[in-house]
Amino acid sequence: FKNLGASFNHNGGVGGPGGGGGTGGPYSWLMTTRTTAVLLAAGAGTRLGLGPKALLPYRGRTLVEHLAQILRDGGCRGTVVVLGAGAADVRARTDLAGHRVLDNPRWQEGLSTSFALGMAAVPAGDDVLVALVDQPGVTAGTVARLLSRHRAGRVTMAAYRGPDGALQRGHPVLFDGPLAAQAASEATGDGGARNFLRAHPGLIDLVECGGPDDGADVDTSDQLHLLDRDALH
To answer: What are phi and psi of 9, to 5 degrees?
Structure first.
């Protein structure tokens, strides 16, 4: 696949223009876990009606720039960003140097095609943390918590307290490497890894990562308040 940002090396960092290696953050010690993040950012944002969600403004940047860096800052040794709708415009209006950027020409066929494309770009032997571009509440601390709690051969899933106090499953989701490959091979349509997760509930470990706003997606206009930094902190 075409590499528009950088190439992975096997020393815990990313090389290429402006890559910087991503080391030195508070969670940089977690990069020894050999986890690569896949950021799914191909959707058109049809329900929201503001164009690709990747370009939504957040804290002086775009969501895709912010979250790609959050995944690195949280301890992932590299980030694969999968674009689709308006990919050329997204690349022109963002700085994703230091991350590997892929264009999914089949994005309209559903999330599963982006999941599979991103998975194919993950270095062999890495665990895979899958994140969505429309979750501004995900922090470097969220990522670090998942990495530190992950067990070999398992799926570690972020969970958030709902209004009723019950834990609700969400993203990011951290897959053991072979399990990620299996989930991608079984993915269809817009379901992503849903088929795999439903078929293997005993493999899932939930890790509490905050409240409703922390795990919420920006899907409709009444959720745009999530892009207000004061609404999250």
So the answer is: -115, 175
- Distance between CA atoms of 206 and 212, rounded to whole angstroms? 15
Q: In degrees to the nearest 10, what's the CA dihedral of 187, 170, 221, 102?
A: -50
The C-alpha angle with vertex 212 and arms to 170 and 148, in degrees rounded to 5, equals 50
What is the DSSP-derived secondary structure letter of residue 112? Answer: H
Cα–Cα–Cα angle for 211, 35, 71, rounded to 5 degrees: 45
Token pair recorded at residue 174: 């951290």
For residues 37 and 147, give the distance between their C-alpha atoms in angstroms, rounded to a whole number. Answer: 11
Measured over all CA atoms, what is the biggest interatomic distance in the chain, rounded to whole angstroms?
47
Q: Which two tokens stand for residue 191?
A: 């379901």
Write the burial class of residue 204 (CB in 10 Å: 0-12 exposed, 13-18 middle, 19+ buried): middle
Tokens 């379901």 correspond to what residue? 191
Q: Which tokens belong to 145?
A: 């918590």
Q: Residues 19, 150, 231, CA angle at the centre, nearest 5°?
A: 65
Tens digits of residue pLDDT in 15-64 = 332 333 444 566 655 555 699 999 999 987 666 656 688 998 888 899 99
Question: Residue 18 is which amino acid?
Answer: G
What pTM was estimated for this model as a whole? 0.81
The pairing of strands 155-161 and 127-132 is unpaired
